Amino acid sequence: MSVDVVTEIVIDRPRDAVAAYAGDPTHAPEWYANIRSVEWQTEPRVEVGSRMDFVAQFLGRRLAYTYEVIELAPGERLVMRTAQGPFPMETTYEWRAVGDAATRMRLRNCGKPTGFSRLVAPFMASAVRRANRKDLARLKQVLERATA
Q1: Rounded to two decimals, what is the model's pTM?
Q2: pLDDT tens for each residue of 85-109
Q3: CB under 8 Å to 64, separation ≥6 — which residues?
Q4: Are the beta carbons of 95 and 107 closer than 8 angstroms?
Q5: Which distant-in-sequence residues (6+ apart) come within 8 Å of 60 by Cβ?
Q6: Per CATH, which fold does 3-145 belong to?
C-alpha cells in the first residue's frame, strides 16, 4: 500500500520569502515537529544532487534517512527523494503567489512503506496528513511572526 498525502496552507508572506525559508533543509527542525536534525552530506546549498541526512521521530520510532534533491525550480518547486530506510519517500514543496504578499504552499509526501512501516501503512496516510497540517501551521506561525 502506498501513501500519497497533499497538504496546503496560505502564508501571509511573499512567495520568495516562503520558498527561501521552507526550501532550505537547514530550517526543517524549526518547523517540522518530527525532525530532530539535518546534516549536509554535500555543500550546504540546495541544488539538484544535494544530499542531506535527516533524523526524525515518527510514530514512536527513530528514523534516519538521506534526502537527495532531484528537481528544483527556485522559488516555485523543490522535490527531494530518499530510497533507503523503512519508508522510501518523495517530498515535494510547491509555492504559488496569492496576490502580492501571500503564498500558497503545497506539501506532498508520497512513498511505499517497507519493513515495519508496511505493517502500519493503513494508518500511515492519516498520521502523515496530521503531521503535515501541524508542520505547515508551525511554518506559517514562524514566517508570519518574523514580520510582526
Answers
A1: 0.89
A2: 667 889 999 999 999 899 999 999 9
A3: 53, 54, 55, 56, 85
A4: no
A5: none
A6: Alpha-D-Glucose-1,6-Bisphosphate; Chain A, domain 4 (3.30.530)
CA geometry: angle at 128 spanning 127 and 129, to 5°?
90
* 3-state SS assignment for residue 85: coil
Q: What is the pLDDT along the chain (148 residues), one digit of tens a residue?
A: 588 999 999 999 999 999 999 999 999 999 999 999 999 999 999 999 999 999 988 767 788 889 999 999 999 999 999 967 667 889 999 999 999 899 999 999 998 776 655 566 667 788 889 999 999 999 999 999 977 6
Query: In the chain, what are the domain boundaries?
Result: 3-145
* Strands, sheet with 61-73, edge to edge from the N-terminal-most edge strand: 3-11, 102-111, 89-98, 77-82, 61-73, 51-58, 35-40
